[in-house]
Structures are given as structure tokens and as C-alpha cells.
Write a structure and sequence with these properties.
The protein contains 7 helices and 4 strands. The protein is of the alpha+beta class.
Length: 177
């Protein structure tokens, strides 16, 4: 189960093809537990997580994700949502428009790295119709779906998948001394 953190970061790849094997509840709980350890502005924790295994709900989420079928095919889909009002209560407009999104993004990255540590695969899906996703889960307007994370055992070893090219270091990094 354990991997060196840097190794997990280097090995993380988006996985869109899954075996049908179920993912144990205990493993999903540990992965979400890692998400809950992410930093948040003022420790507000403006997030909610839906663990979806029900086929008809996964199908509705795949439709909301503009027909990305792998969302439906994954054994588990975790939908991560932000609670803008929770952040706004402490930080006003900046909290509702930015901090709650940053906080959920940190939680999502923790999840993705935990997935690698457990030998699973996942993909951060941000391309979806928020209202359709909200409807699929019966969410109130107070909750904003931010990402769908399909999780499962990869059909192919993601380690063999080459990383995408990165922009040159000197183009993205500025050192101020």
C-alpha cells in the first residue's frame, strides 16, 4: 500500500479504463480520509463528498459529464462538492468564489495521490454540467459540484503511460532573490 510521496506524485496518471472489480469500502474510506486531511482556509473545511456505486446514478453522472462513459464504468465515483456559504461566512466573497474551490482542489489532489498509494487508478473530471450533476445526486443549490473522481483498478498499468510534456522550467518558474 505505501509508496514514497514523490514516487506517488511521479506515478500519478489519469486512468479512464477500469476493471469491474469492486473497490473495498475500507479503501475508499481511507482515500476520503486523506482528502479530509487537506489544508483549508481557516480550517473551514467547506466540502462534501458523495461516494457513488449505484449504476443508475453513475450513468446520470456520465451523462452530466458530456457522455464520458468511463465515469459510469468505474466501480466507484466520488463527487467532491464545495460549500461556498461555509467559506463566505468567514471570508465573504473571496471565500465563496475562491477559497472553497482551492480547498476542494487540495482535497482532490490528496485523494488522487492516495489512489496511487492503494494501487488504484482515478481521473479528475471537471468537464461536466454542474446542474445535471447536482440533479443526479439531489443536491441543493447551496452545494457546488467541483469534480467527479472515478476510481477503480486500472485495466492497464498506468506506470507505462508516459507523462504529458511539461512546459519548460524557465518558462514557468521565476526565482526572486
Amino acid at each position: 500500500m505505501t509508496k514514497d510521496l514523490v514516487e506517488a506524485i511521479e506515478q500519478r496518471r489519469s486512468v479512464r479504463e477500469f476493471k469491474p472489480d469492486p473497490v473495498p469500502d475500507a479503501t475508499i474510506s481511507r482515500i476520503i480520509g486523506c482528502a479530509l486531511m487537506a489544508p483549508t482556509a481557516g480550517n473551514v473545511q467547506p466540502w462534501r463528498f458523495w461516494v457513488v456505486r449505484r449504476p443508475e446514478v453513475k450513468a446520470a453522472l456520465a451523462r452530466a459529464a458530456f457522455g464520458q462513459g468511463f465515469v459510469e464504468e468505474a466501480p466507484v465515483v466520488v463527487v467532491v462538492a464545495a460549500e461556498p456559504k461555509r467559506s463566505a461566512a468567514q471570508y465573504g466573497k473571496r471565500g465563496s468564489e475562491l477559497y472553497c474551490i482551492q480547498d476542494t482542489a487540495a482535497a482532490i489532489e490528496n485523494m488522487l495521490l492516495a489512489v496511487v498509494a492503494y494501487g488504484l487508478g482515478a481521473c479528475w473530471v471537471g468537464a461536466f454540467d454542474e446542474d445535471a450533476a447536482r440533479h443526479a445526486l439531489g443536491l441543493s443549490e447551496d452545494v457546488r459540484p467541483v469534480a467527479m473522481i472515478p476510481i477503480g483498478y486500472p485495466k492497464r498499468d498506468p506506470a507505462g503511460k508516459r507523462p504529458r510534456p511539461q512546459r519548460p522550467w524557465d518558462e514557468v518558474v521565476t526565482v526572486v532573490e
